[in-house]
Design goal:
Blueprint: H1 4-31, H2 37-40, H3 49-59, H4 65-81, H5 87-107, H6 112-124, H7 130-138, H8 144-155, H9 163-178, H10 180-193, H11 196-209, H12 211-217
Helix pairs in contact: 1-3, 3-4, 4-5, 4-6, 5-6, 6-7, 8-9, 8-10, 9-11, 11-12
Length: 220
């Protein structure tokens, strides 16, 4: 009889843990932000702050890579699209979003768009974005919208001085030129906002790939 008591306790504890796991999974499905890092660069509207806050509660105790990545992307989108009015608030929001992204990448690192999101936030904060941008290239392919966003980040930051990134970025520029009717004005805007090294990268790549567009860029 005495041997049955520990078994019953173990059984009850197991049942409670399973019930908690099921409850957390259900709650996660309800509050999980339906927003991915790639959506950040394709113009998708980020979730409302109320749902974002609810997702943050679960993200603080979760090891679900998709949940953490979606929450981090949504938080970054909120920072980039709806920044705080004061400089101190913007800096704090940027740091918090970066921390959420790092947490997600520690669990699930094969997320190129999320690495680019981290690099974008770092560049906005005046921090070194080169390692994060490089990881966005090394962890997989991305949709064209993300590739073009990466061109903007590379050409407007110190990442354009990295020889490996310069080689990798040429494929993004060529992809944008392949859709020139859509991306021509955006490429021109990226050129205008680029650093000297970024301008050089755009000119060198377009000179070989699209000489006529190269001539257009040289007018700006």
């Amino acid at each position: 009889m005495n041997r049955m008591i520990p078994l019953r306790v173990i059984g009850i504890c197991t049942a409670v843990l399973l019930a908690l796991h099921a409850a957390m999974a259900f709650y996660g499905d309800v509050v999980r932000p339906d927003f991915r890092a790639s959506d950040l660069f394709s113009g998708e509207i980020p979730p409302e702050k109320a749902k974002l806050a609810a997702g943050g509660v679960l993200a603080s105790v979760s090891l679900d890579g998709d949940l953490l990545a979606n929450y981090a992307a949504a938080r970054a989108a909120d920072v980039l699209h709806h920044p705080a009015i004061d400089a101190g608030g913007r800096a704090g929001e940027n740091k918090a979003a970066q921390a959420a992204i790092v947490t997600a990448l520690n669990i699930s690192p094969i997320r190129p768009a999320l690495w680019l999101t981290l690099g974008t936030l770092q560049a906005q904060a005046g921090e070194a974005a080169t390692p994060a941008v490089k990881m966005s290239y090394l962890t997989g392919s991305v949709p064209i919208d993300v590739a073009f966003a990466r061109v903007r980040t590379v050409t407007s930051s110190a990442a354009a001085t990295d020889e490996e990134i310069k080689l990798l970025a040429q494929s993004d520029i060529r992809a944008a030129l392949a859709n020139r009717s859509r991306y021509e004005p955006l490429l021109i805007a990226a050129y205008v906002q680029a650093t000297p090294q970024g301008k050089s990268l755009l000119l060198e790549t377009t000179k070989v790939t699209d000489p006529k567009f190269n001539e257009i860029l040289r007018r700006y």
